[in-house]
From TrEMBL:
Residues 1-13 have a biased composition (Low complexity). GO terms for cellular component: membrane. This is Transporter, putative Lysine:H+ symporter. The lineage of its organism: Bacteria, Bacillati, Actinomycetota, Actinomycetes, Bifidobacteriales. Residues 1-25 are annotated as: Disordered.
Length: 501
């Protein structure tokens, strides 16, 4: 992959050229508004993990352990997103962190990151459309689930095949529903805790109930870290949207800066309210992790407040969350495949776009892969579950790639004589931020299956750490075939202009 030097870019206004994708046939279009990107970032923070499995964190590690895990992972994700924000505003491209890994670390790493991330999203899409069918069957129990799964996939395909603004507008309204639900939940929950409108006041007695606030010791808290980490996955999609933002220099920093407050408001306060209102010994908290809407901690709190139709309301909210996840997955994976093709890491057909700027071939390939994975769940449940488990660590691997890319970019930027004032957005507490992200992600990945590591259970380890093995195979394979080398800091292209194709 040929690279432009800093001098070659000096005759052009760098802020205008940074990652510019030309409008027209053969490229994506910058039609995502600032409000779209802010809500996409918000939607990435709020998923079914908060609505359904957040209760299991309290049940496993107690109210204190659950809060500690979400606060720690939230701080890490915030620093990670500021790293991504610095990279995405300097070089806003659809390939996002795969492109950054290739440019700032090693082309082989960019290849491995991009394909692993694409595979993860396509498999996640299959899981989500299966879940959507189960949610719809809550109201229509006697209808075949595969029809609803297929309908969801078709709707998402049509939304993404129209224009990028159609995708952005859909995400805006779906995210708005989730935000409104959480705000109502927090208002009602705090009123119940304080005894406002709801008598008697619940107070904070559940934080000292039996073994609370910390239950199960370090192993329990470690397992909760994993759940919290999964809950935050998807926040990195904001980096992918930079390639189609009307004004990435404004929209991306705004979305990134808001992440901290979203984490504080939507996750930490929600966990606090759940922990205060429901004792950690309640069996209902674990029931939600099995997909039982009636056992969702949100449903339980609404029911205690007197909302008789709480289960049905939460089912609708979680359904919108699933639709948002499928929609975002189709967008992120198609743009990742498009970015890989632009960098010559995938067949050239995936780099072609329609006149409306949609990489249709990449979108079709993504949807077909999700459909094939979903079909495997019908004909072979064990293989399907293996796929789901095997790609579970991809999000953490992507985060390591982001942190490593930013760490090396900043070092090269200063080594080559650039001043930080040239950057539109500065990450927070460099190098502490990316180093913390790398260390925590490695710890979480290693701690995914400690029993198998200690007992050397190779079959379980192969399934659990398949994503790690896949990235290594892709990386070493590409490196062997193309003889790539780790990019030296002094030779790194930090100009902010897209590489020549």
């Amino acid at each position: 992959m040929t690279r432009n030097t800093s001098n070659a870019a000096s005759n052009t206004n760098q802020s205008d050229r940074a990652g510019q994708e030309h409008h027209g046939y053969g490229s994506v279009k910058r039609n995502l508004k600032t409000r779209h990107i802010s809500m996409i970032a918000l939607g990435g923070c709020i998923g079914t993990g908060l609505f359904m499995t957040s209760g299991s964190t309290i049940s496993t590690a107690g109210p204190g352990g659950g809060l500690l895990a979400y606060i720690a992972m939230g701080v890490m994700v915030y620093f990670l997103m500021t790293s991504l924000g610095e990279l995405a505003t300097h070089l806003p491209v659809s390939g996002s962190f795969a492109a950054y890994s290739a440019r700032y670390v090693d082309p082989a790493l960019g290849f491995a990151m991009g394909w692993d991330y694409w595979l993860n999203w396509t498999i996640s899409g299959a899981v989500d459309i299966s879940t959507a069918a189960l949610l719809i069957q809550y109201w229509l129990p006697h209808t075949p689930g595969w029809i609803w799964s297929l309908l969801v996939l078709v709707i998402v395909f049509l939304i993404n095949a129209l224009t990028v603004s159609a995708f952005g507008e859909t995400e805006f309204w779906l995210s708005l529903i989730k935000v409104a639900t959480i705000i109502v939940f927090l208002v009602i929950g705090m009123a119940m805790i304080c005894g406002i409108m709801f008598q008697p006041a619940v107070g904070l007695k559940n934080f000292t109930y039996k073994d609370a606030p910390f239950v199960g010791g370090f192993p329990a808290i470690m397992s909760v870290f994993l759940i919290a980490g999964y809950s935050f996955q998807g926040t990195e999609v904001v980096g992918v949207t930079a390639g189609e933002s009307e004004n990435p220099g404004k929209a991306v920093p705004k979305a990134i800066n808001d992440v901290f407050w979203r984490i504080l408001l939507f996750y930490v306060l929600s966990i606090f309210v759940i922990a205060a209102l429901i004792p950690y010994t309640s069996p209902n908290l674990l029931g939600a992790s099995d997909g039982n809407i009636a056992m969702s901690p949100f449903t339980l709190v609404f029911q205690r407040a007197g909302l008789a139709s709480a289960a049905s309301v939460m089912n609708a909210v979680v359904l919108t969350s699933i639709l948002s996840a499928v929609n975002t997955g189709a967008y992120a994976s198609s743009r990742m495949l498009y970015g890989l093709a632009k960098d010559h890491y995938a067949p050239a057909i995936f780099a072609r776009t329609t006149k409306r700027g949609i990489p249709l071939a990449a979108l079709v390939a993504t949807v077909c892969m999700s459909l094939a994975t979903f079909a495997s769940s019908i004909f072979g449940q064990s293989f399907y579950m293996w796929l789901v488990t095997a790609t579970g660590l991809t999000g953490f691997i992507a985060w390591i790639g982001i942190a490593l890319s930013h760490f090396r970019f900043r070092r090269a930027f200063k080594l080559q004589g650039h001043d930080l004032s040239e950057l539109k957005y500065h990450s927070k507490l460099y190098p502490f931020g990316p180093v913390l992200a790398m260390v925590l992600c490695v710890i979480v990945i290693a701690g995914q299956d400690i029993p198998s590591l200690l007992s050397l259970n190779w079959s379980h380890m192969a399934m659990t750490y398949f994503s790690v093995v896949l990235v290594l195979v892709l990386y070493l394979g590409f490196k062997f075939v193309n003889h790539t080398k780790i990019v030296r800091l002094k030779d790194m292209d930090v100009s902010g202009a897209e590489s020549a194709r």
